[in-house]
Design goal:
Blueprint lengths: L8 H14 L2 E7 L5 E7 L1 E3 L2 E6 L4 H8 L2 E7 L11 E10 L5 H14 L17 E13 L7 E3 L4
Antiparallel strand pairs: 1-2, 1-5, 3-4, 4-7, 5-6, 6-7, 7-8
Length: 160
């Protein structure tokens, strides 16, 4: 990580974007109907405050999203020394399987990053039946940054 931030929202935004844009996986925190937590790492792409990934609909986190769409996200810089120097972004979000009416747009976001990372092309036939994967998204409602030079996490209202 190269971001050095002070206390301004512009700096928080720059810091958050750097963590998010250099990350490959986010940890998706879901809960089932009884409130039992389940964290899952997912490879993601994003468009502004919307994060997109693919998962199997029968996966535990996908089933959890069906019953409790409120989720948490964590993206952190790796590798970092184990000296309390963590760079991380946390978010509250609402998640769901991407509806057919928005599938092309979200799939284009996912495909663009997949191609840029050398992961091949993603087309609609890979995320609709009879394929075993579906396209999901989380829309961020509140974003937090954890910077090693601060003792507190704080919500930041920034455009990603």
């Amino acid at each position: 990580m190269t971001a050095n931030i002070t206390d301004g929202p512009e700096d928080d935004g720059r810091f958050a974007r750097e963590v998010i844009d250099t990350g490959h996986y986010l940890v998706l925190a879901t809960a089932d109907a009884e409130g039992n937590p389940w964290p899952t790492p997912v490879w993601y792409a994003r468009d502004a405050r919307e994060f997109v990934w693919v998962s199997r609909p029968e996966a535990r986190h996908s089933r959890n999203i069906e019953v409790r769409p409120r989720v948490g996200l964590t993206i952190f810089a790796t590798p970092v020394p184990v000296e309390g120097r963590t760079h991380a972004v946390y978010a509250d979000a609402t998640a769901a399987e991407v509806p057919g009416t928005d599938r092309d747009r979200c799939l284009a976001v996912f495909d663009r990053r997949a191609r840029a990372e050398g992961l091949g092309s993603w087309t609609v036939d890979r995320v609709v039946a009879p394929a075993n994967l579906r396209l999901y998204r989380a829309r961020v409602t509140q974003l937090f940054v954890l910077h090693p030079d601060r003792d507190v996490r704080r919500a930041v209202a920034i455009d990603l």
